[in-house]
Design goal:
three-stranded antiparallel sheet, elongated
């Protein structure tokens, strides 16, 4: 099997932009035909008729520079030999594959005959009902069968390019832990989160749910980030009033809302340990405790 190769920048080329979709369809179809029939990029009159390419479409491909006029009413793909193997190259490669296949079969037969002669030479040999297999080392050209796949546009050979296998979703394995590098990264990103405690919550939650995920590491990172966002400040982090009372979370929320005003109360900001802007008015005539709860 051969391939008709299309450059990955063809979609933005001037030729593609100038062509109608009918012309592009004819160009691709004719390219596949030429690669299959080993015409070296020549589209004969009979091929045009068989593929349903009208003269108007063929002339459009010539005018935009994708085809060239050829003899006897045929056309030639521009730069065919630059991107595609010639008929001589393809046939030579197929012959090498056939020779390699014949050589491999000959070595395999000799190996099997050698095993049979060895077993027959033993006087008390026990014969197994199942046949013995001889494994013969092979190379990339040891098999005459070509396996089609996506071609590599950078080469003119039929190299097999395999796509990476997609990772499947699975339930959280027992005892699962993220990599140490991931743990250290999240410790830096979310320093206020107790990673060990949150990991126990994470494992208990997802093991009880039994749901499947493709990437448990990403799920764990998002869990830690949410824990950081929803974490309430500890009592030790809340400011203390002059009378020794600590501000409650609700009072801290009130103080932060006050700080967003254009003319905030400086006493409320001071009581909450927040910076007071220079443009704020002078101190009010009431205490910090009354100001923060007003």
């Amino acid at each position: 099997m051969t391939w008709f190769k299309v450059d990955d920048k063809f979609w933005s080329s001037p030729e593609r932009l100038a062509a109608s979709y009918a012309a592009l369809g004819a160009w691709v179809t004719a390219g596949s035909y030429c690669a299959d029939q080993l015409t070296d990029g020549i589209v004969s009159k009979n091929a045009q008729k068989m593929l349903g390419i009208r003269p108007k479409i063929a002339r459009e491909l010539v005018e935009i520079g994708l085809w060239l006029d050829h003899e006897n009413g045929s056309f030639l793909f521009k730069n065919w030999s630059k991107y595609n193997p010639s008929k001589v190259q393809v046939e030579a490669r197929r012959e090498r594959l056939r020779d390699a296949g014949r050589a491999g079969g000959k070595r395999s037969g000799q190996s099997r005959r050698g095993e049979l002669d060895e077993s027959n030479s033993e006087p008390n040999a026990k014969h197994d009902a199942s046949p013995k297999l001889s494994i013969v080392p092979s190379t990339n050209e040891a098999s005459p069968v070509e396996h089609p796949s996506r071609p590599d546009p950078s080469t003119t050979s039929n190299e097999v390019v395999r796509e990476p296998r997609k990772k499947r979703a699975a339930t959280l394995p027992d005892g699962w832990m993220p990599d140490q590098a991931v743990i250290e990264a999240m410790r830096t990103e979310c320093p206020a989160v107790d990673l060990e405690a949150e990991h126990r919550k994470f494992a208990d939650y997802w093991l009880s749910k039994g749901e499947r995920r493709v990437d448990w590491t990403a799920t764990w990172r998002n869990w830690i980030r949410r824990a950081s966002e929803t974490r309430r400040p500890a009592a030790a982090e809340r400011p203390v009033m002059p009378n020794g009372r600590q501000l409650t979370p609700a009072e801290m929320k009130f103080a932060h809302a006050e700080a967003l005003k254009s003319n905030p109360n400086p006493e409320i900001l001071r009581a909450a340990g927040l910076p007071v802007p220079p443009s704020a008015p002078q101190a009010q005539l009431f205490g910090s405790s009354r100001a923060i709860t007003a």
